[in-house]
Amino acid sequence: MITGAAVSTVYCNLKLKHPTLDMPVIDYDLALLIQPMLMMGVSIGVICNVIFPDWLVTVLLIILFLVTSTKAFLKGVETWKNETLIKREAAAKQAERSSEEFEYMPTPTEPDAAAEQKTPSDEALPVSVGMSMYQAVCLMQGKRVISSRANKQTSPKAHQLLVYCSFGVTAGVLAGLLGVGGGTVMGPLFLELGIPPQVSSATATFAMMFSSSIAVVEYYLLRRFPVPYALFFTGLAFFAAIVGQRASRKLINLLGRASFIIFILSFFIFISEVTLGGVGISNTIHKMARHEYMGFDNIC
Q1: pTM over the 0.85 mark
Q2: Quick one: how far is CA 64 from the chain centroid?
Q3: pLDDT digit string (tens) for 70-126?
Q4: 3-state secondary structure string across the chain
Q5: 75 contacts 191 by C-beta, under 8 angstroms
Q6: Among 160, 162, 184, 161, which Cα is nearest to 172's?
Q7: Using an 8 Å Cβ cutoff, are 42 and 172 in contact?
Q8: pLDDT tens string 110-167
Q9: How far apart are CA 55 and CA 42, in angstroms?
Q10: Which residues partner with 17 through β-bridges?
Q11: 147 near 155, Cβ under 8 Å?
């Protein structure tokens, strides 16, 4: 499902532009920094999924969704307040100059953002680390730049890039372990970095397309899902994502706010926490009642 939705969403985003800059809505430099570590993390997560008991996976799933949904909701509230302030200032200017038409611009996340708007094999580890290190060095030297960052006047520091890569590995591990897709972690992370909501969603989905694909291949080789069901839900998610993309763009144009994307993200993460966590707890209780083995499994 995640792979199908990611593919269709990326297809819809390929021709879209950044809301304020002359660049694609997908920040490829940011994705290139995160993607190798994300895919390495997926391989690690798939191995952990085979070993970990179901009750532990359920606990980790609930914790992850609770933290990410809360942070996303708080970020949405902050963005909504900033958008409201901008709308009030724009209304005041329009009252003074009634002949000038106001055009909504997405909320800057930094005070100086307005000025900036103008302008699972053994080879996986060294390859992933090497690609991310190369991209990190280029970013530090200024040869490449994460253009959609709120503050891009200075090149990111080494410790900042290390944190970004570590989050990429963490997102990959959680995606492979819990089957939730790396976007659940990467979306809120990109928002914290000052990436606009539209760019955050598009870039996270672009990265998630590759990470979910490699997870599908690994789980298929492990024979852990029925192929007919997977194909059905992949097709269903593919078309549902297209509908969601078109509906979200129309709502942004209608409401003049991008913050609702963050609220939708927070809402669905919370719903996933309740449903998946509830099913996991129910299955764990049934296993306890039948006195089934609930320890760690052998990877072989």
Answers
A1: no
A2: 13
A3: 888 888 888 888 888 888 888 888 777 765 544 545 444 444 443 344 334 445 555
A4: CHHHHHHHHHHHHCCCECCCCCCECCCHHHHHHHHHHHHHHHHHHHHHHHHCCHHHHHHHHHHHHHHHHHHHHHHHHHHHHHHHHHHHHHHHHHHHCCCCCCCCCCCCCCCCHHHHCCCCCCCHHHHHHHHHHHHHHHHHHCCCCCCCCCCCCCCCCHHHHHHHHHHHHHHHHHHHHHCCCCHHHHHHHHHHCCCCHHHHHHHHHHHHHHHHHHHHHHHHHCCCCCHHHHHHHHHHHHHHHHHHHHHHHHHHHHHCCCHHHHHHHHHHHHHHHHHHHHHHHHHHHHHHHCCCCCCCCCCC
A5: yes
A6: 184
A7: yes
A8: 444 433 443 344 455 555 556 666 666 676 666 666 656 655 555 667 777 787 778 7
A9: 20
A10: 24
A11: no
- The token duo for 7 is 């593919």
Q: Which two tokens stand for residue 105?
A: 């611009």
